[in-house]
Amino acid sequence: MISGFHHSCFTVSNLDRSIEFYRDVLGLPLAFTESSQASGDDRSEALGVARSQLRLAIFKVGETHVELIEYITPKGRPYDRVNSDIGAAHVAFLVEDIDAVYQALLAKQVRFTAPPATVPAGPMKGWRWTYFFDPDGISLELIQTT
Q1: Which of 38, 59, 86, 129 lies 20 to 30 angstroms, CA to CA, from 94?
Q2: Phi and psi dihedrals of 57, rounded to 5?
Q3: Helical (H) or strand (E) element with 93
């Protein structure tokens, strides 16, 4: 029934600022941007958000994608969840050298929860990971699995 994973999506407050972060800071290739206003496409019913107008950006990440949506109308509320809250989510970006990526992002003023940690035991033993935040405070993760 399900054949794969296509994309993850986050709603952001300022698409231009988020494009700069995901493209220029994280280095993700921007595949395209789109505006429901420009296309005349009314996605309100499908989105379940009445009278919505939006702008979006799609980034290529390996074989999958990350989508960012800014609702022009209606404006959303700020994200105020912590990782333990029901419905909180994040995307984990696979990296080959977590220490190098961590240092490079620190130099670009990216905010992290802590330096990379190593899983001490179990099926993920040796994996290294850390959480960081985008400009809207959305939780993201770096992970090195080898």
Answers
A1: 86
A2: -135, 140
A3: strand 91-94
